[in-house]
Design goal:
about 45% helix, 2 domains, about 300 residues, Rossmann fold, two-stranded parallel ribbon, UDP-galactose 4-epimerase, domain 1, 11 helices, alpha/beta
Length: about 300
């Protein structure tokens, strides 16, 4: 039985990854500081090893990684406002956390699968979907630290022969995501009949990728890819934020009004005008790429939120 450590495993993406690895028969260890709570369902939590601790603590990471074949490194500081207010801490957590994960992986000869971000593509003028070989342009502390860690993994592979994979996630959405992110925020506003607040013109586009697709791609990349590789994990569908809001209103049957508001100045670096990804490289390596349509994904998610409200 393969053994996997998931750092940040109690968070949105991490909890889904933890559940899927457990279901596939992996022995799972989760390391999380629980600053954002624990999103792992109780029935799964009872059957894995959970360690409350911080990824910047080298001894804790080394202990958590004992005997692991895989380290899925998802621990990070998230949220536009939080990152904008704490740029130094954001970079420290990324850089120190990766150093500790790298050291632990070397001791255990474990493969590292790292959650990077499409944010490293930055403000480049994009006329088509982005591929992994495009020039990156990270502008925020979060994106710069993610890019640094990609380079660090490349060096680990070149110098130490460690298998290292970086996955550039594109706007993941799904159950358990908190409302600092745009999709759950819009859905909560729509279900409550409140105004749906869209920053700027709403014409900025993103590539919304369903959590189930993201997790499947993540696990397949871990199981099938060796050496050092970077992959986009994108749905290849460009959707404006305004259209996202309109879809949510329509699918939920809400009467909410969509209101455009001025974005806070500290969000400037995050308000990229256009971004959507190309997952052809992922497909060529693992035989799979995301494909859940946004309408279907939103319908399932809206039902999830409505059921949550009715049971609470």
């Amino acid at each position: 039985m393969a053994k996997a450590l998931v750092t940040g495993g109690a968070g949105f993406i991490g909890s889904h990854l933890t559940c899927n690895l457990h279901e596939k028969g992996y022995e799972v260890v989760v390391l999380d500081n629980l600053l954002r709570g624990n999103k792992i369902p109780k029935n799964v939590l009872n059957e894995i090893t959970f360690i409350q601790g911080d990824v910047i603590d080298s001894k804790t990471v080394m202990e958590a990684a004992k005997g692991c074949d895989y380290i899925y490194h998802l621990a990070a500081i998230l949220g536009v406002d939080v990152v904008a207010d704490n740029p130094t801490e954001t970079m420290e957590v990324e850089v120190m956390g990766m150093k500790n994960v790298g050291d632990a992986a070397l001791v255990n000869n474990a493969k590292i699968i790292y959650a990077s971000t499409s944010g490293i593509y930055g403000h480049n003028a994009i006329e088509q979907s982005v591929t992994e070989d495009i020039m990156v342009d990270p502008r925020t502390s979060y994106a710069m630290a993610k890019r640094y860690n990609e380079l660090y993994l490349a060096a680990l592979n070149e110098e130490k022969g460690l298998d290292c994979i970086a996955l550039r996630y594109f706007n993941v959405y799904g159950p358990r995501q908190d409302n600092r992110m745009v999709t759950p925020r819009f859905i909560e506003q729509a279900i409550a009949g409140e105004q749906i607040t869209v920053f700027g013109t709403g014409e900025q586009t993103r590539d919304f990728t369903h959590i189930d697709d993201t997790i499947k791609a993540t696990i397949l990349a871990g199981e099938k890819v060796t050496g050092f590789q970077i992959f986009n994990v994108a749905n290849e569908n460009e959707e404006s934020i305004l259209n996202l809001a309109k879809k949510i209103v329509e699918i939920s049957g809400s009467e909410s009004e969509i209101v455009l508001i001025e974005a806070p100045k500290k969000r400037y670096d995050y308000e990229v005008g256009r971004r959507y990804g190309n997952s052809d490289k992922l497909l060529s390596f693992v035989g799979y790429k995301p494909g859940t349509g946004l309408d279907m994904g939103l319908a399932e998610l809206i039902n999830y939120y409505k059921n949550q409200n009715s049971s609470s």
